[in-house]
Amino acid sequence: MKLTEKGQVTIPIDLRRELRLRPGDQIEIRLEVGAHAAVSRLRLLTRDARRYRTYFPTVEVIAPD
How far apart are CA 11 and CA 24, in angstroms? Predict the structure, then answer.
């Protein structure tokens, strides 16, 4: 994802579909990594899926194909 000069983030279409997001939906962005995601039972969005799946096998990883 990329942050614009206006502070806007575009969520990729495949992720919007997976999360069933629609225009106008309220979302909260929290940055949690590795152990925090595992302990909190959160999904983790990353481009380095292999690394997180290796070290945190209980975390559900969301990654681009």
Answer: 13
Q: Could you say which DSSP state residue 20 is in?
A: T
Size of the chain in residues: 65
| Contact call for residues 37 and 44 (beta carbons, < 8 A) | yes
Handedness of CA 37, 4, 19, 53 (dihedral sign): negative
What is the identity of the amino acid at 4? T
Question: Residue 42 CB: number of other CB atoms within 10 A?
Answer: 14
DSSP state, 45? E
Mean pLDDT of the chain: 83
3-state secondary structure of 50: helix
> What SS3 state is found at 34?
helix
Query: Has this prediction a pTM greater than 0.90?
Result: no
